[in-house]
Design brief:
With 177 residues, the chain is an all-beta fold. It has no helices and 15 strands. The strands form four sheets. A six-stranded mixed sheet has the order 2-14-3-4-11-8, with no helix packed on it. Strand 6 and strand 7 form a beta hairpin. 24% of the residues are buried. The N terminus is likely disordered.
Length: 177
């Protein structure tokens, strides 16, 4: 990595999009998915996700958050990210029960109490650090990050992200939906 002095990323940008369901509707939906991403001077990403869901009339134990950790880099190599989950809370800051399972291609965060069911609107706040997400080039570093992943099988009403980096580091912004 050449340093964050010439970083190509998304900075202090809020992107809002209506996202259709990736697969069959299971009777609940995500009202809002927001990711606040901070690029640290060491290249790590500190991420806090706010996921507000509505289980409507269903009885659920919680949600699964699957974060891709392996991406195809080229024909011969894959890109692997590291993850450290700091914690999961509700919107008021109350700690929630969760389990982290790391697989070859993704990390799964299972959130909820197996002895308790929930209904209606629920809020989840997931805090974690990602390592290895910056791509180093000769004249800049690049952040390439899939904000909400591709493993949701429920509809999302709003998806947004804000990304901040060290002062003066952001040179160019490009977003894809």
């Amino acid at each position: 990595m050449k340093g964050l002095l010439r970083l190509v990323a998304v900075a202090a940008l809020t992107l809002t999009a209506v996202v259709p369901a990736a697969a069959a509707d299971t009777g609940w939906h995500i009202d809002s998915f927001r990711a606040d991403i901070t690029i640290r001077s060491n290249g790590n990403l500190n991420i806090v996700e706010a996921i507000d869901v509505d289980f409507e009339g269903l009885q659920k134990h919680g949600i699964f958050r699957i974060i891709p950790m392996r991406y195809r880099y080229d024909d011969a190599r894959d890109r692997l990210y590291g993850i450290f989950v700091h914690g999961v809370t509700d919107a008021t800051g109350r700690a929630l029960i969760y389990q982290v399972s790391k697989g070859e291609a993704a990390t799964e965060i299972k959130i909820g109490d197996p002895a308790r069911t929930l209904s209606g609107k629920q809020s989840y706040r997931i805090s974690y650090t990602i390592t290895g997400a910056l791509n180093a080039f000769a004249d800049h570093d690049e952040l390439y990050w899939n904000v909400n992943g591709d493993k949701w099988d429920v509809p999302m009403s709003i998806v947004s992200a804000s990304v901040v980096g060290p002062a003066g580091a952001i040179q160019k912004v490009t977003c894809f939906q």
